[in-house]
Design a protein that fits this description.
Blueprint (H helix, E strand, L loop, with lengths): L7 H10 L16 H4 L5 E2 L7 E2 L6 E5 L1 H7 L4 H4 L6 E7 L2 E6 L11 E4 L2 E2 L1 E2 L4 E2 L11 E8 L3 H4 L6 E7 L7 E9 L3 E12 L2 E12 L9 E15 L2 E16 L7 H4 L2 E17 L4 E15 L5 H12 L6 H8 L11 E17 L2 E15 L12 E14 L5 E12 L3 E15 L2 E12 L3 H5 L2 E3 L9 E4 L7 E14 L4 E23 L4 E24 L6 E17 L5 E3 L7 E9 L5 E13 L12 E17 L2 E10 L6 E2 L6 E2 L2 E9 L1
Parallel strand pairs: 6-11, 26-29
Antiparallel strand pairs: 1-2, 3-10, 4-5, 6-7, 8-9, 10-11, 12-13, 12-38, 13-14, 14-15, 15-16, 16-17, 17-18, 18-19, 19-20, 20-21, 21-22, 22-23, 23-24, 24-27, 25-26, 27-28, 28-29, 29-30, 30-31, 30-32, 32-33, 33-34, 34-35, 35-38, 36-37
Amino acid sequence: MKPVLLSRRAHLLLAILSLPLHASAEEPLPLLTEADLLIDIPEVISATHLSQKLTETPAAISIIDRRMIETSGALNIPDLLRLVPGMNVYHIHSNKFAASYHGVSDDFPRQMEVMLNGRSVYIPLLSTVVWEALGITVNDIEKIEVVRGSNVPTHGSNAFLGAINIITRSPIQSQGTEISTTQGALSTETYNLRHATSINGMRLALSAGFTQNDGIHRYQDSGLTRRLNIEAVFTPTLVDTFNVSLGINSGHAYRGNGNEANPAEAEFVSREHVAHYQAVQWQHIVNPIHSFQLNYQHNYLDMETPRFSDAELQALLEADFGALPPDTGAQLNALNPTGIFKDSEVGTTETHELEYLHTIEPSHEVSLVLGIAGRYARARSGALIQQPNNHWIDETRWRLFGNVELKTLPDWVFNLGGMIEHSSIAGTAFSPRFAANYLIDQNSTIRAAATQAYRMPSLLSANSSYTLHFPLGVDDDIYTAANPNIDPETIRSAEIGYFSLFPDINSQLDLRIFYEDIDDGIGSTFVTATDLDNRYIIQDNVYNWTNQGFEFQFKYVSKASHASSALFNYSYNNVKGDRNRGLKGVQPLDETAPLHLASILLSTKPTVQSSISLAHYYLNHARWLEGTDDRDDDIQYDRTDLRLSYDFAADWNSTLSMTVIIQNLFDKQYSEFYRYNEFDRRTYLQFKLSF
């Protein structure tokens, strides 16, 4: 599903196509200007749902285009996000990934919306994104738009600190067949097939694949995914476009405690998953001023993990409490009929969402988008949301939102937007945004923006509940209790940005200075309750912190036949704050995001058939909220990746590409999240046949 509202250029194209066929060559085409035909500044839709130039958006946006995707050598989607200023990316295990903007996160980053062609892939049951269950690979992606900063006024609560929209390759733009494989480190095997064609005016694309690896040597934390996706685009008239997409994927990935050096004590277990989605979109041009878009989407994810047997529980209890009656493990299982799981990532969740967007562009000076959306989510889990008979817990959310773009003053662009969001479990909140862009010239702008936004408690945060009953005399019961009094998180942010395109040197510069004040952040805290006379855990408003600093991105792309490119990213983020862990005390947050974070991507084509690229990633230090909680040392890395590629012309209409990728070229071994989740030199060989 391509969530692209028709821009003025689309309206212009429609006007051209609608001209009488007998118009003579001497008759001038109305509305055509040089600016309409030659626009070098990239356009995006993710900031407001309006198609806008980067010089006119109310937020800083980074674009990872197809060229960057190919030259980066990234093998998974989160690794691509290392090319975005301020984006923290880490492998929690070999096949579990996380990405957060401005850090202050654990292994379940909660405060960033992630979309696939505009379809939210945020999982209500886990309050995060399960990257390995997206069902696509880097080869399926056309570009990624990343909104750096709160985008709640456009995309709702989940976009609290930022938003990512992954846009896949359209069957309209990419025709033909591709077959590829990747082999290499960690016993990795990947096989992909992509085929796009046209049948009776309908454009179709099918992609399928299989990936597996054995994980790192210490833990053998293997992973496997199988995926199948189909997309169809149909344009029955000049003013209507229908897009239908669906997919299914399944597999497993191991979870455990990477701070334990001994694999037996790390207790890695397999978490299985099955996921599928369906999405339908209808775009319609009413006239050159009005257009609308109607979207429906459905997501489903089921996760399973093993339960402890009686014998396993007996052994665990005796390891902690000494010799016990031989039936104690069986008693423990009997007292907890929903099961005692070896990992908490277990349960089923699904969402339905219907969204209507209406765009009005009465003139070049005024553009307006209005939208309304409703989302129904439900989940059940014997480990996270414990209910009698494993009943479902559900939530309904409604969003009313809009943005107006004004160019009524010379050299100024104003964006005023906001969202009213209502949750059946958390009430109503209004999140406004105001931005003013001063156009220094046609290629440069200075932006000032301010936002106050709210993140509603997720379905998990408001309903998290679990009770572990122990046999009498063994230990006190442990409770995770739902908290009906939890409040929304609040962010007040301000930024000054500068964006400039330098046509003479084929470059662009994006600078952002930011201040973000977050209150009432939601997290776990440990409490003693007199009514239960035991210890228990609740989700509550325990975080308060500020982010302040700056970041920049410089991009250069040569237009020569043997093209070269360069990308430089840097961010400085000074975090101050704390979280209240209750019985565990107050924990400072000052080092829970890297102070300095940088990346470089250099690429060149010595010949038409060959390419060389070098990527470097730097993180000075970070103490993630879980993986580094009890460590004496911090996470830090200085990693260089090399990619070499050569294309062989098999015949007149097919190409065979061979690529060598070496990650961590200089073998500077480092830890990604947990102490013993070690990343060393890894080499991969790729082959791709295109015809």
